[in-house]
Amino acid sequence: MKRAISIAALLSKKFKTMAFDGQWADAIGTPEMSGVWLVWGQSGHGKTDFTIQIMKYISRFGHVVYNTLEEGTRKSMQDGAVRHGLTEVARRVKFLDREPMDELIERLKQPKSPDVIIIDSLQYSGLNKEAYKQLKEQFKTKLFVFISHADGRLPDGRVAKFVRYDADVKIFVEGYVAKIKSRYGGGADFTIWHKGAKDYWNNNKTRANT
Length: 210
Known about the structure:
Elements: H1 7-12, H2 22-28, E1 35-41, H3 47-58, E2 64-67, H4 75-83, E3 93-96, H5 101-108, E4 116-120, H6 122-125, H7 129-138, E5 143-148, E6 150-151, E7 154-155, H8 158-166, E8 169-174, E9 177-182, E10 190-191, H9 194-208
Parallel strand pairs: 1-5, 1-8, 2-3, 2-4, 4-5
Antiparallel strand pairs: 6-7, 8-9, 9-10
């Protein structure tokens, strides 16, 4: 049986955090560089663009790898990388072309493995609840960002819904706007693409009033 942790011991613990600034701090606060984030939304609403923006921004705090289990390294992913200037952080970001989860786990066991792992998508990972919990427990010092399909306004499937409840940062993407709930503060909406968001929400308002 583990010893109980005293208040003094709890308050003396140190955590590796990321000093977010600007709109990222407004949206997410000051997050730990470990744990789990979940991003979900319908196709065509800006999930991939938002995730690439996350990838670029977080790379200032550590090395990031994006496992494109679903899409692969296709032209659409190439276009996103160009659109968001990933060449500026090329030494700190990498893509994996549909790397199976067992191979990814072996990669993460290696010295100098990535600090942040983006998995796109949770559905294509094949993880069940137990495998997800084991992954999180095995790599406690790493940050996992899972991308998920959506069923309406919720993540799609039992595992995705479980991860949503467990995640430290929950991000629902609709109409090029990320709506964020974070355990680290923040809470402001994050606009992924201003023109697309304006057109989408103006059209939705027009439809609602007709």
